[in-house]
Amino acid sequence: MAENDPNHSELATFGEELRREREIRGISLKEISDATKISKRFLEAIERNDHKTLPAPVFTRGFVREYARYLGLNAEEMVTRYNYAASGDDRIEQSAHLHSLVQPQAPPREPKGIPPLYARIDRNIYLLIAIVAALSLVTWWALRFKREARAEAIDAMSHSATVSTAGTPTPRAAAVKPPIVAPPATTSATAPADDLMHLTMDLTDDSWVTLKADGKTVVNDELKSGDHRTFEAHDEFFFSTVGNPEGLAMTINGVRIPPLGKHGRAVHKRAFDRAWLKAHSVPEGTQTTP
What gap in Å lies between CA 76 and CA 101, rounded to an integer? Predict the structure, then answer.
């Protein structure tokens, strides 16, 4: 085909325009090839106007249609322009419709504008946003599951400690002998009229306290300095955890409980039952022997 052939000139303009539209949008041939499954070699041939390297026109039309559609151009118009530009290729079937395409009175192509912003954004950005959102959701779920599992483990440990403590006297209660008193003693100075164990707590410093009364959790929180709390139980008070034992001043039915530990050193599993209260109570009108 001669270089001054008008069809050859149109073909050159056709390929150059496709390349220009692609570069305006910042799209690579590899991206188009990956999306349309068209060989990069054929896409380069279209842009170089090397239609002899391309397969039969019936296949090339499909390539041009997908290429134009990916760029956001009018696909059918670009196929028509390809037919007109490559009409000198003897592989294109001849028809009255094709003959009308090569007439010089073909309407001029309307200029295409720059595509909208969302069409020019790399699709990988959308993928990255989706991945970040998914990871955030998974992290939130894992942290929530971890907190729930930790709370269940603490409750289970506290329940096991309560069961084991209820079956045997505490070492401290077993080691302390009741004082020798002079008979007869009929009343206790610390025995309440309602036959309940009354625990009072006065906070001199912040402390985390987990307390059960007769096996039921009555407090599991950080108590603040200056707080005053009272609790009742029939048989036992059980401290699962005391975070700052020196910050607690406690009595049971008026009997003072010595500090459970030193400042800032947590203690665990301390029980106070009726045996402890009896061992540390002094009846009215009696004295311990020297």
Answer: 13
What domains lie within the chain, and their CATH numbers? 6-119 (1.10.260.40), 122-290 (no CATH)
How many other C-beta atoms are found inside a 10 Å radius of the C-beta of residue 143?
10
Q: What is the DSSP string of 81-92?
A: HHHHHTTT-TTS
The amino acid present at 108, given as its one-letter code, is P
Phi, psi of 235 (to 5 degrees): -125, -35
Q: Distance (Å, rounded) from C-alpha 128 to C-alpha 147?
A: 29
For residue 186, the model assigns a pLDDT of 40
Residues 6+ apart with CB under 8 A from 186: none
Running along the chain, 290 residues long, what does each successive block of 10 average in pLDDT?
45 77 90 90 86 81 89 88 72 43 50 63 84 93 89 77 55 50 44 79 90 93 92 92 87 90 83 91 52
Helices and strands of the chain, counted as H and E runs:
10, 8
DSSP SS3 for 57: helix
Q: Identify the pLDDT of residue 153.
A: 83
Q: Is this prediction's pTM over 0.85?
A: no
Residue linked to tokens 């599991």: 220
Stretch (H or E) spanning 30: helix 29-36
Whole-number Å distance between alpha carbons of 131 and 224: 43
Rounded to whole angstroms, the Cα distance separating 165 from 69 reads 78
